[in-house]
Amino acid sequence: MTPGGSTPARRTFSVPTLLTRSPLTGFPARGHLPAVAGGGYSRRAGRNTDADRERAITGNRQASWAFADAFVSEDDALIRARRRAHEAGLRPVSPGTGATLRLLAAASGAKAVVEIGTGTGVSGIHLLLGMRPDGVLTTVDSEPDRQQLAREAYRDAGFAANRARFIPGRALEVLPRLADGGYDLVFCDGDRMEYLEYLGESLRLLRPGGLVCFEGTFAQGRTLDAAHQDTEAIRLRELMRAVRDSPVFTPVLLPTDDGLLCAVHRGP
Fold first, then answer.
1. What is the rounded CA–CA span in Å between residue 130 and residue 6?
2. For residue 249, which phi and psi values (nearest 5 degrees)?
3. Under 8 Å CB-to-CB from 20, ≥6 apart: which residues?
4. Distance CA 56, CA 52 (A)
5. Class assignment of domain 73-265?
6. Is residue 36 over pLDDT 50?
7. Chain Cα centroid distance, residue 49
8. Percent of the chain with pLDDT over 90
9. pTM (2 decimals)?
10. Sign of the torsion formed by the C-alpha atoms of 27, 28, 29 and 33
């Protein structure tokens, strides 16, 4: 859960930029656009132009993302938690990202999950919905007031008090106190500048076969564009390289909302 406006902007990426600029060394970069069947035809020229194709691809891709993001509906408890996040100036995970977290927790049979960045409980509810009925969510946030809102949201969603353990404090001070190899999933939605350190802690915390996920790795498109050289974008690229190139992870980068980087810890 990250600070933000009450109505977070949707991603708008430039197709030529994404296809021809590759800010991550070793990532594929294509210098041409594929033809789009049934669209992008220029009557004046009598053929598909690059500009027509770019517009068609961008429109199709954005429509697909929007449809996928809203595919799994949210119940009243989640809608209320999401509204409280917006009122607090926070940017909660999107419905599509939440549904992905729920699926990953369910597919892995997660019983013990760590969440970095409690927020108002939106991502926590999704995780709890996917976890085993006897599972416990350990959620860390530096703002106790937010954790109180999340506690109310979990209760509103019908979860017993013992399903969540709230730990206030900075993540890098709390994580070292958690048990080695004791967790099935670690979800990171805290300080983007600390994501590499969270990765190191996750290696210790996860059991073999466990999952680590990082929310917001696209940074509103800045990470994907080599023209952006701000510190956060650079750090996120370093994170992507570290996860992609590590022999102990099987990674995937999902285009849900602002980018969800996930990896399975295969063990030593």
1. 27
2. -120, 145
3. 29, 30, 31
4. 6
5. alpha beta
6. no
7. 35
8. 71
9. 0.81
10. negative
What's the Cα-to-Cα distance from 197 to each of 96, 173, 213, 242, rounded to whole Å? 26, 11, 13, 11
SS3 3: strand
Q: What is the spatial order of strands in the sheet that 249-254 belongs to?
A: 164-168, 136-141, 112-116, 183-188, 206-215, 260-265, 249-254
H or E element at residue 91: strand 90-91
The residue type found at 240 is M
pLDDT in tens, 169-224: 999 999 999 999 999 999 999 999 999 999 999 999 999 999 999 999 999 999 99
The reported pLDDT for the residue numbered 58 is 66
The span from the CA of 146 to the CA of 90, in Å, is: 10
> Which pLDDT belongs to residue 94?
95
Amino acid in the structure at residue 237:
R
β-sheet bridge partners, residue 139: 115, 166
Q: Which amino acid is at 155?
A: R
Query: Can you tell me whether residue 121 is helix, strand or coil?
Result: coil
Residues forming beta bridges with residue 174, ordered by sequence position: none
Q: What is the pLDDT of residue 65?
A: 78
Tell me the per-residue pLDDT of 71-85, one tens digit each, with 9 for 90 and over: 888 999 999 999 999
What mean pLDDT do residues 4-29 have?
Answer: 41
**Residue ranges per structural domain of the chain:** 15-69, 73-265
- How far is the CA of 72 from the CAs of 8, 67, 80, in angstroms? 19, 10, 16
